[in-house]
Task: structure prediction
Amino acid sequence: MPEVEEEFQHTVEVWTVGDLKKALADVADDTKLIFSPAEEPGSDLAGPEQVAFSAGVSEFYNSHTRETYPAFEVSLEFPPGTYYRRVWEG
Result:
């Protein structure tokens, strides 16, 4: 079965600085900040051109201390646009 590239439209609502300010309004100043980069299926992390599309406080687990802690997580994604993905024909 040969591998081919298929074009697809990726849509994501990109956050603005205003969206981020609203999300941070009630978050304590000493809350840890975590960024979750986009990951392309079947490959490494995405490049530097990523956009924020969601954020909020979540509980995180530190495997070294075995403790959980609250952190403000900003999730990143590929920018909206036309992309190609590999598919198997057959």
Summary: The CA atoms of residues 38 and 77 lie 5 Å apart. Residues 3-88 form one domain. Helices lie at 17-24.
